[in-house]
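Recap quiz, item 2
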Amino acid sequence: MSAERVRASGARQDPAWLRRTLIAATLLVVGVLIVLPVVSVFVEAFRNGAGAYWQHLFADPDTRDAILLTLTVVPIALALNVVFGVAAAWAIARFRFRGRTLLTALIDLPFAVSPVVAGLMFVLLFGLQGYFGGFLQRDGYAVMPYLTSALVVVVLGASYAFLRPSSPKLRRGLWAWPRTTVLGGGVILFAGSVLAQRALGIWPSGATLKIIFATPGLVLATAFVTAPFVARELIPVMEAVGPDEELAAVSLGASGLQMFWHVTLPNVKWGLVYGVILCGARAMGEFGAVYVVSGHIAGQTDTMPLRIEKLFQEYDAPGAFAVASLLTLVAIATLLVKSRLARELPQGGHR
Amino acid sequence: MSIEVKGVRKRFGSFVALDGIDLAVPAGALLALLGPSGSGKTTLLRIIAGLEVPDAGTVRHDDADITDHAARDRQVGFVFQHYALFRHMTVGDNIGYALRVRGAPRAEREARVTELLRLIRLEGIRDRYPAQLSGGQRQRVALARALAARPSVLLLDEPFGALDAKVRQELRQWLRNLHDEIHVTSVFVTHDQEEAFEVADYVVVMNQGKIEQVGTPAEVFEHPASAFVMDFLGNVNVFQGRVERGRALAAGLEVPYPQYPHAEARDTAVYVRPHELAVESEPRAESESLEARVVHVNPAGAVVKVELRTELAGQLLNAEIDRERFAALDLKAGDRVFVSPRRVRVFLPDYAI
């Protein structure tokens, strides 16, 4: 009887020496490869005391500008990716269309492409010798009034069509206008907006619009490299939640926007936060693509990772480690939030 | 409000879900769409609700053509098969949602929620979340939510499909009573014929995207329009045979069938319901009864179910006899008996000849 029990437990568990060896080996590898370097970053940063650390971070104007630039570029790239990620996840999780599988694969493309190549692609598109670079340099600001006005009219038109009740009986006020009035209103709005922008001189005249070696390029490169994060997190969550609650909201009389705010967003919010945090952490640390499009103009186009590299090249190790410690802190904070969030995600939501 | 569906067709890829549906639901009726899975009943329901767009055909409410109207403009209450309650909202917020999106003042909303909670007899659960409710409670909350904005049409997709037998029975009764109370035109989908017959005023039997029969439960049960309906309405004994000169002949039996007086014999299936199969211990005249052996007796229930095997063809038959008759016959497995159909049904494809 007791012999049987021993054998039964032996069949369920690996021998003790094997367990201990595996655990010890894992701890050793994690310690040497992960914990030790992270600790050493902080040790190096604080080598000359907290005062020197502070000096390194905020006394050097170039470092200060680099931190500010990162804090500008990352939120914009993040906002772009939230909009793109929600739209893409919605399309893929809710609709069945031709090319859906291809789109799913394409979303992951930025993960597969080397960041340096991504940077080069943007140089090819928007650089001075690139496809659009010359034109933007010359006439970039001149087309802005038209571009923004067209965008405004398209967005308003789409919302109008989206929110218009399908039953003629329910169309009141703005929605009762005849089609021609609405179209005419759109044209007038466009013309008015263009004229107003030109009269007010919102866009600088005579200046050149630079994408590459300027902030817009940094935003584009960062957004491209981190594009998959939000969509990747949202798609499985949206698929797990299913479309029934959204349909229920619509059948109860909710408009598309109400459905999104009341039902879709609360159901996927943890997935969205998770994606945003991963995306933000990755965007702050992005080096390769940004390196290609930045041009390394100190105080102008150096983000934090670029600044670290430059300080390191200039043999200013304490300065480099001080900035590096900030990025490391962000990473640790991300990890903590991430492990808390993993519990909030619905079944099938985490990967 | 009455509903009229005309010539509705819907395909999903190469699968034909609805193949020309014409259906009228009178105002205030409670109608059941009954059919096996894949018969298109849920698709039809979703088209009436505006959650699916038909490829062809029209949907009308009273006199208004609402085919192109979005779901939210249709004044329809829809109860989903798996309830689809908003999981992050309390029961009260779920029920009040339709009024919230219509911009109703808070006081009015709260009053309506209280009223509906009383209607579904769940006053105490207002602040709970859907995950904390039992299946039956969720179902009732889903119904209350659908009724909140006083829809003119109530649509229910397999309303009791995911519940256990006892709760199901209670809710059926409850839905019937509720409908008698509020009289909103209602359509519900089910694959359970018993449920359809018990709850509905009218039953629509669907098969492969077509309507097989429309009628009251009694009409559909007593006069099935097709072999499919006969088959679908419950276990039935099928004999292969033929009809000629006002008689049906099958498996050695000969039964009067005056509906087919023609001389020309036609091969067909002959249907006999279990309760229309008489079981006797003595044979009748030749070709009026079949010799069979009792295979199994199930005495648990209002009627006794007897499984038999015919001696001649070895065909399995089901018979239902009342308890007195069962006691008189004293049936056991292995007994030799004689069966004779009291009534047969025959469905001829082109009966008009």
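Chain B has a mean pLDDT of 87.
The CA atoms of residues 13 and 55 of chain B lie 12 Å apart.
End of item.
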